[in-house]
Design a protein that fits this description.
CATH topology: Beta-Lactamase
CATH architecture: 2-Layer Sandwich
Largest sheet: 6 strands, antiparallel
InterPro entries: GAF (IPR003018), GAF-like_dom_sf (IPR029016)
Organism: Zobellia galactanivorans (strain DSM 12802 / CCUG 47099 / CIP 106680 / NCIMB 13871 / Dsij)
Strand content: 15-25%
Strand order of the largest sheet: 3-2-1-6-5-4
Radius of gyration: 14 Å
Protein name: GAF domain-containing protein
Number of helices: 5
Number of domains: 1
Structural class: alpha+beta
Order of helices and strands: HHEEHEHEEEH
Shape: globular
Distance between the termini: 31 Å
CATH superfamily: GAF domain
Number of strands: 6
CATH class: Alpha Beta
Oligomer: single chain
């Protein structure tokens, strides 16, 4: 982990100790710390099993309705939730795997990753970040995102 990322983890973990975390500010800190431009946080609605948009940055306004509610198994966030593991793409624009939804290409991002927010194997949501250039996230970056997701889940579990 480079210095910027290390300080990002410390900042994020500190903010998660607050009684009511500012999820939008948290997302912006994470995006900045990973040198990204775009991101989303979705919380899992335990009653409907749908991912609900909690915070976002860099998403074109016309895409917000499509990202507001995501079924498990659909798109990068939904697949990360279903598999309970990080899902990433070096270049979302040229991806033909079918993992990214067609509308996702309209974000204009390329290197992207969606990580499940897990605590003791239980899903609480997803965290996604992306860069405007092709990029492969390192194993360390994936692990850091999963750690952040675990800490976010810990907060949600106490609600």
């Amino acid at each position: 982990m480079d210095h910027k990322e290390g300080s990002t983890l410390a900042t994020v973990f500190e903010k998660l100790k607050q009684p009511e975390p500012n999820w939008q500010q948290l997302l912006e800190d994470i995006i900045s710390g990973f040198d990204c431009t775009t991101g989303t946080i979705h919380f899992l609605d335990q009653d409907t099993s749908l991912l609900q948009l909690q915070a976002h940055k860099g998403i074109p306004p016309f895409l917000i309705p499509k990202l507001s509610t995501i079924p498990i198994g659909k798109g990068m966030a939904g697949i990360a939730a279903e598999r309970k593991e990080a899902v990433e793409m070096c270049n979302l624009q040229t991806d033909s795997s079918g993992v990214a939804r067609p509308a996702a290409k309209e974000t204009k991002v390329e290197g992207s990753i969606a990580a499940p927010m897990l605590l003791d194997g239980k899903l609480y949501g997803t965290l996604g970040i992306a860069k405007p250039v092709p990029y492969d996230f390192t194993e360390e970056e994936r692990n850091d995102l999963l750690k952040i997701g675990e800490e976010m889940s810990r907060v949600l579990a106490t609600r």
